[in-house]
Amino acid sequence: MSSAIRTDASPRPKARAARLFVEELVRQGVTHIFGHPGGAALPLYDALYDTPEIAHLLMRHEQCGAHAAEGYARATGRPGVCLATSGPGATNLITGLADAMMDSTPVVALTAQVPTHLIGRDGFQEADIFGLTQPVTKHNWLVRDPDDLVPNVREAFRVAVAGRPGPVLVDIPRDFLQAEIETPDEPAEPAHRARRAEASALRHAALAISNARRPILYVGGGVISSGASEELRKLAKKARIPVTTTLMGKGAYPESDPQSLGMLGMHGTAYANWALHESDLIIGVGVRFDDRVTLKLATWAPHARVVHIDVDEAEIGKNRKADYPLAGDARTVLHQLMPLVGAPDTTAWWARIEELRAKYPLRYRQGPDVILPQYAIETLWRMTRDRRPIVTTDVGQHQMWAAQYWKCDEPRTFITSGGLGTMGFGLPAALGAQCGMPDRLVININGDGSFQQTMQALVTAVEARLPIKVILLNNANLGMVRQWQELFYGRRFISTALANPDFAKIAEAMGAAAFTVRRPEELEAAYGKALAVADGPALVNVHCDGAENCYPMWPASQSIDAMIPEDPRYADGGEASR
Amino acid sequence: MKRTIVAHVQNVPGVLARVDGLFRRHGLPVESLHFDAAGPGPARLTVVARASADAAGLVVRQLRRFVDVRDAHEAAHDPSHENVARLRPAG
């Protein structure tokens, strides 16, 4: 590595570009790369051979690499790095990049490209990755000159975390990696300034909050990205405002706190949704008023004015008009707001909220024979909550039940695919999270459908001896699709029943510990055994009720009156087990 | 109605596709597109497209997010922009 900022104009010593590139990754603090090699990437891999500072995890599909990088980033707050070779290797990253784009996750994707003389000539394993990934990255680069290599990658790491985080991609022709280039200067310290809100806008918003009668905080992933949980807690406590979080915002505010209303939206708590509906002021922080929250914008929260805090100016007013737009970093803006906000009188509002909470409890009926997925999730939560686990989920019913029943008290402990809804996300994301947080218990709650999209990531977890726990809620169905077919397509079930393999056998064949349970009373013992496995992954195949549906459910594009607050079977007045 | 959006961009390969990509994603038909660059470095891109005020506003804000875009704004519509179109997308 070069050692000092050079002030003279003498030529700097030269070295292999791939070597300097990898040294720059070390300088950027990269500890893990989730990748898959191939012809064009070989010079990079050759340089990694001599780089003990970086562990390379050999993924069995590049999509797994991208999701693992997301898991690493979401658990640590630092950019996750994935690496692929040219052509199909690089195109396989696209789903993960799109996922990271939707969920504002800082991922640095590095792809090797065919040598420059073959670009645009349909060379073997050539794909226009720069063009293909433009819509799914915050920014991307095709390195145009070997001397741009290090500056481009520095810029990539800066852009990934600046402002609203997101994925970036650097595409590097193979011949550039093999070139001899001048050793780069030491990087200048990036001047990072969090964006502040304007004083007059702040005063107006603070006044609106102070005078509100039925205010509610609606908070999302932006609070977690910005590290604003403490500022959020202070504001919520000072003004005694109830807090509801989006799926991405889980953990931004402690869900065991009485002021938490849990998640809102399509499968959120009915009391959070009704509270939003009746509120007179919504304070949206790091959220985008997306359709899984608002369902039908025209009738959503009709009595409320809106304070909208977001670092991305393009989000403000995109879906719902903001009466008090506050463009800026969530943490900074909440900090600015604090001294200006008085305590509104929310006594009557809290009485109403407690009424709603009592009227619409979140509950299920666990019987003696068949395991309900909600029970499986809540049992594990109860057994492990003292260990402050990090949970990743996949996508579908199990994800929504996890969002409902897995109570999160701290940020960066609930990692899920929110915006894109990517099946296959959860297992590789758990792998990445465990790499980033080696001392934490990492649990992947998965479904049988989604597990089969990326289950080969389990092999990598075995190889790297990562003690992740995979809880497979196996209802032999693509459950959420089945639920829609049942409720909205006249029970015409097609292509949703799964003739599954024996997942415990598969996991064992991959080298993981595996346990199977079929009855409620077997759950705790199986969880106990899986939690005791320390030298590699463990999977618990939980056979669940395939007919159970996820409620509350607020159907897409409909007004709140259409929300089904709980399982219609409970209308008989019988007691739920919870 | 017709709207004119002006973006001050860096003239690097791919910047046109980025900007056009936004119009494509929003389904806004581009009627003319004028790229004014004297080589690498700062350049000015003028796009005339049919869009509602809402859509144009969102496109402008989303344009500003691009690393290669220094600034973007909606300009008062000037019919002469339509006569200087040097680059017309097909279809």
Q: Low-confidence parts of chain A, pLDDT < 50 over ≥5 residues?
A: none
Q: Please, how many helices of chain A?
A: 23
Question: How would you classify the helix and strand content of chain A by structural class?
Answer: alpha/beta
Query: What oligomeric state do these chains adopt?
Result: heterodimer
What's the arrangement of strands in the largest beta sheet of chain A? Answer: 3-2-4-5-7-6
H/I helix tally of chain B: 2
Proportion of helical residues of chain B:
25-40%
Percentage of residues in DSSP E strands of chain A = 15-25%
Largest sheet of chain B: 4 strands, antiparallel
Tell me the Rg of chain A in angstroms.
Answer: 25 Å
Which shape of chain B, going by the Cα principal axes? globular
What radius of gyration of chain B results from the CA coordinates? 12 Å
Mean pLDDT of chain A: 96
Contiguous runs where pLDDT drops below 50 for at least 5 residues of chain B: 84-91
- Classify the beta-strand content of chain B into a percent band: 35-45%
What coarse outline of chain A follows from CA principal-axis ratios? globular
